Amino acid sequence: MNTLTKNILLKKLGGLNNSNYLLEIQNSKYVLRIPSKNNTNNFSDEHDILNIVNPLNISPDILYHNKDTGVLLSEFKKSIKINLEFYNSPIFINDLISILKKLHGLKCTNYFNPFKIINENINFLLNSNFNFNHDINILMKKLNLLEYTLTQNIHYGLCHNDLNISNILYSKDSVYLIDFEFSGMGDIFFDLATLSWFLNDEMRNELIKNYFGNYSSYLKEKLENYLFVVKFWNATWSFIKSMNNNSHYDYKLGGNMILDDLIIAL
After folding, report:
1. Which string of DSSP letters, residue by residue, matches 37-76?
2. What positions does the domain Aminoglycoside phosphotransferase occupy (predicted)?
3. Phi and psi at residue 170, in whole multiples of 5°?
């Protein structure tokens, strides 16, 4: 047992909501995820979704997942560093769309409603006397208008709902998705808008054409409207994280930078 322990190498990886480690045992590499104490996500729902997506080879193989604690052990996939230039390339977008279509074609019993979550987050922050730097009523008015418009015609699918760059791996010309904590049924435009956040306008058009097979002003407007929802959701999540933050990352500053962007665009 002592010999085995000596042959285990542990290296801390990045992560905002969890502690992640590269685990190496006898020349085999794995990723160990340990959720932070203030992580309140439903790991039972995540467990069900991991079982659904695992056979499709769109994420690293899961070796262990505890649906009560969220502790997860998965195979390690070595990924290239995805810089902004490669992110805005047709090859990356095309490969990513291929994976997303597989994911969006699946079904689960969990539902993700960003409008409800944002409202709940804002109410929690207000009840906690959070000091907003922006006129939150203006942003909520815009959100309510968008909710009415965007829920008239929903493109349903199983969505990842947290497709930031740290949750996308590009290994040997293959794309893999990780961290399905927020995944659930919803409008696939939440995923597409998240991806479009750091795309230039030309590549946003390319994203639409490659996913749907055609481009229309309706699809582009829906993408841009959902980008507002995505940014607002991320900002409220950051503000809540800032209230109990033990990491070096300034969550409140990050949230305020997002709202700065939304206010300017109004």
Report:
1. TT----HHHHHHHHHHHGGGTSSPPEEEE-TTT--EEEE-
2. 14-216
3. -125, 105
Within a 10 A sphere around the Cβ of 1, how many other Cβ atoms? 5
Residue 24 lies in a domain: no
DSSP 96-134: HHHHHHHHHT---S-B--HHHHHHHHHHHHHHTT---SS
Helices and strands, counts by H and E, the chain: 10, 9
Structure tokens at 192: 């597409």
User: Over the stretch 31-42, which tens digit does the pLDDT of each residue have?
Assistant: 999 988 777 788
Overall number of domains in the chain: 1
C-alpha span between 238 and 247 (Å, rounded):
12
* Residue with token string 């969890």: 18
Asked, for residue 192, whether it belongs to a domain, the answer is yes
